[in-house]
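Per your request, structure below.
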């Protein structure tokens, strides 16, 4: 099998190093005009690279190795996501000593990054940027968000176990950019609370949040599930007493914004009855995390609900992978507020 040096596809009976499509891609990358009267485009490519670097008198193998390392550098240099300063410096050193290289394995970067890896991430990032720029959350949050996650995030890479620092750096940076876009989209369509908590998780070392006022507090107060839960708590633990303090109960929200913001929390309620009405101190405690993969059925409430099934479980599981990469960080959320003069209806 004879593989293209760039994409590793089988070129069958071809005697060239690069496939015809790849050679065109390389000329475009290097901003070289493909010569009409030169049949051997690879030979012209080698000469052009050597001329740029002011390098002469290389063997046939050395020309190919130089092209390999030079193109690797160029693809990495065109990446927007990730930090590759050290790697580029090492590639430059390898390029500088090309005339002394007798075996490809002598390159310092030989086992650190392959040309195919650099090219693949370059193409992934191109696609990523294309979709990020076209996302319109206002039209249809669920469909567009799912399309964004599925078609832009290099999911086929991050589901594998990767130890190569070069690839990990690129993937982490793209994930970070993705979640920033999701957070911005959340604000656009009114998912302010979930967007706020997501943005906080993307900071370097997020501190625990204590929230006593704001939109999320009002959303909770007006949430039907919360109101039902509160009624059950007061009815059960306030019966035949004027004082109770119940901790460690569980609460889950179906409201879209709260649904993405709070992933299943503890609720503590302290109640004091005065003149037949309750003064209540509410405390909701959640760990903002995505520590386990979720099955689709974990999220299905309505069979026809895209946000609560496909979209939600997919976001959760991709976020789980981002936690593993250290992009999304876990922290505690404590929401405290009072409800006075409460009556069980």
């Amino acid at each position: 099998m004879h593989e293209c040096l760039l994409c590793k596809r089988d070129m069958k009976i071809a005697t060239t190093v690069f496939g015809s499509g790849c050679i065109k891609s390389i000329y475009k990358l290097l901003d070289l005009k493909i010569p009409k009267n030169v049949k051997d485009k690879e030979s012209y490519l080698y000469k052009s690279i050597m001329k740029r670097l002011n390098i002469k008198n290389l063997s046939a193998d050395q020309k190919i190795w130089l092209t390999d390392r030079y193109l690797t550098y160029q693809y990495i240099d065109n990446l927007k996501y990730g930090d590759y300063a050290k790697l580029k410096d090492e590639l430059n050193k390898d390029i500088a000593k090309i005339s002394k290289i007798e075996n490809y394995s002598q390159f310092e970067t030989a086992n650190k990054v392959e040309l195919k890896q650099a090219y693949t991430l370059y193409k992934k990032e191109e696609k990523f940027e294309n979709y990020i720029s076209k996302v319109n959350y206002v039209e249809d949050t669920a469909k567009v968000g799912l399309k964004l996650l599925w078609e832009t995030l290099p999911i086929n890479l991050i589901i594998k176990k990767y130890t190569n620092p070069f690839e990990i750096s690129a993937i982490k940076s793209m994930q970070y950019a993705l979640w920033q876009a999701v957070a911005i989209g959340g604000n656009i369509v009114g998912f302010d609370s979930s967007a706020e908590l997501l943005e906080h998780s993307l900071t370097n070392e997020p501190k625990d949040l204590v929230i006593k006022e704001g939109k999320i507090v009002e959303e909770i107060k007006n949430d039907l599930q919360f109101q039902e839960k509160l009624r059950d708590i007061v009815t059960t633990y306030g019966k035949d007493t004027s004082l109770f303090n119940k901790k460690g109960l569980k609460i889950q929200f179906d409201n879209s914004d709260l649904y993405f913001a709070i992933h299943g929390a503890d609720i503590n309620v302290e109640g004091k009855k005065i003149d037949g009405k309750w003064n209540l101190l509410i405390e909701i405690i959640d760990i903002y995390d995505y520590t386990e993969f979720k099955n689709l059925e974990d999220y299905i409430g309505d069979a026809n609900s895209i946000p609560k099934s496909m979209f939600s479980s997919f976001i959760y599981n991709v976020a789980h992978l981002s936690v593993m990469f250290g992009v999304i960080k876990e922290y505690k959320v404590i929401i405290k507020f009072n409800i006075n003069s409460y009556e069980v209806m």
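The chain is about 50% helix and 15% strand.

Regards,
D.
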